[in-house]
Design goal:
Elements lengths: L1 E5 L16 H11 L3 E3 L6 H10 L1 E3 L2 E5 L5 E12 L3 E7 L2 H11 L20 H11 L2 E4 L9 H4 L3 H5 L8 E3 L6 H4 L9 E3 L16 E5 L5 H8 L6 E7 L11 E2 L8 H6 L11 E2 L2 H11 L13 E4 L3 H9 L5 H13 L4 H6 L3 H7 L1 H11 L3 E4 L8 E4 L3 H13 L12
Parallel strand pairs: 1-2, 2-5, 8-9, 11-14
Antiparallel strand pairs: 1-10, 3-4, 4-5, 5-6, 6-7, 10-11, 12-13, 15-16
Helix pairs in contact: 11-12, 11-15, 14-15
Length: 423
């Protein structure tokens, strides 16, 4: 059976996370989004673990929350942890007993796991040591947002073997992160046999946060065992397609100045000693350049795709598209919310953005339907993101309009940009 899966979220006990995070609210929002399976996130934190044990039911190895309509949202027990060098990793557990056993083994390596804000615990372990403990307890592990310049595994290591040691091949997946997609990461030779996951890293339960990146999976059951079998190519479990942001919208996509957002090529940044020629701010290497750098170090000098991958479909939040369509005028927020609720009362957000036929969309809202169809056709120009600034998408109504907008953006590359407003 096919499931839409997002296994990277957080709890209220991690820093910078909405206090509205709860399993009932996540389940309600997942229904609006069109998600079937979520990660619990932060399962090592004692208060969140207690919350999960209170609300989740279990049958045949499947954990689920059932709402008043008897709809089930399935959950896989998960967390994110940080090791030395600020490298972040995703972990998946089969059951609560495994969580408790693993937590007991790592408590001595963490000073913040048991306190408020410690939902993403920092461990005094290196990635190799963490991998050893995960193998001991049958915990699935892979690097979270693998390429981000601050917390990705490739920020500090040129290969998974350097990071995880001799048993690195037992790391079966990587999470791409918002600034990378399948085609960019598929340049790195050592990743040929690794599964690529695209998850949201959501810090809010709202439907425009969870599932902003997700994976459509074919699973025999919505549980840990089928996820493990997918990673090991066992049975009929497989990735059908990945869904996520266009990397140009990711805030670390391009090499850029942290202060004025001026974008640079890698060679120019090196020549300038990683200082901006305009404002003298610090330049931060982008994911796109870092991936090419790693690929060449591993022998892919021609930057060719290393293997065939499932399709990667681009997505943007429906609410963001509505904002573009109505413009920031008059009763902006009220109008946007009314449009959102009108269309979500008929279809899930994922269905609206990727699946519902054009005529059905136009029956609900003709103007918005035009924007959705333009998005599906790839009529989107991007002011690319970099150095912590999100990129900005512009929906166009024709190829000519897109070309002109891209030319305008190109002319602006030497100017300072205003960071995209988040909502």
């Amino acid at each position: 059976m096919r499931y839409n899966v997002d296994l990277h979220i957080h709890s209220p006990y991690a820093s910078g996370v909405s206090k509205n995070m709860s399993l009932p609210e996540l389940s309600r929002q997942a229904k609006l989004k069109g998600l079937d399976i979520l990660g619990t996130g932060d399962i090592l934190h004692p208060l969140w673990l207690e919350h999960c044990r209170e609300w989740l039911r279990e049958k045949a190895g499947c954990f689920y929350f059932k709402d008043d309509t008897d709809r089930k949202t399935y959950f896989i027990l998960s967390t994110e942890v940080e090791t030395s060098g600020r490298a972040h990793h995703l972990l998946f557990f089969s059951d609560f007993e495994k969580v408790l056993e693993f937590r007991k083994d790592i408590e001595k390596f963490s000073s913040d796991m048991m306190v408020y804000g410690g939902g993403r615990p920092r461990l005094s372990l290196n990635p190799q040591e963490l991998l050893g403990l995960c193998l001991k307890h049958d915990v699935l592990i892979g690097p979270a947002h693998a390429f981000t310049p601050y917390f990705g595994i490739y920020a500090g290591y040129d290969s998974l073997e350097m990071a995880y040691g001799k048993q690195w091949e037992k790391v079966l997946f990587i999470e791409l992160g918002l600034s990378a997609d399948t085609s960019t990461a598929n340049l790195i030779p050592e990743l040929k046999n690794k599964k690529f996951f695209s998850f949201s890293d959501a810090h809010s339960p709202n439907s425009y946060r969870i599932g902003r990146e997700f994976v459509c999976m074919e699973l025999e059951k919505p549980n840990y065992e089928s996820l493990k079998n997918l990673l090991c190519d066992v049975g009929k479990n497989q990735i059908v397609y990945n869904v996520g942001y266009n990397p140009k919208e990711g805030k670390y996509n391009k090499t850029a100045c942290r202060d004025c957002w001026k974008i640079y090529g890698l060679e120019d940044a090196i020549k300038l000693g990683w200082r901006c020629s305009s404002c003298k701010g610090i330049l931060k290497k982008g994911v796109e350049d870092r991936i090419k750098e790693i690929a060449k170090k591993q022998g892919n000098n021609q930057l060719k795709q290393i293997t065939n991958r499932p399709e990667y479909k681009y997505l943007m939040p429906l609410y963001e598209l509505i904002q573009m369509e109505i413009g920031k005028k008059g009763s902006y927020e009220k109008c946007a919310q009314e449009k959102y609720e009108k269309i979500i009362s008929r279809y899930t957000e994922i269905e609206v953005m990727l699946e519902v036929q054009e005529e059905k969309l136009r029956e609900i809202d003709n103007g918005l339907a035009g924007y959705i169809m333009a998005f599906r056709k790839g009529l989107v120009a991007f002011r690319p993101g970099g150095a912590g600034h999100y990129g900005t998408p512009f929906i166009c109504q024709s190829e000519e309009e897109k070309r002109l907008k891209e030319e305008e953006i190109s002319r602006e590359q030497n100017k300072k940009y205003i960071q995209k407003t988040l909502f």
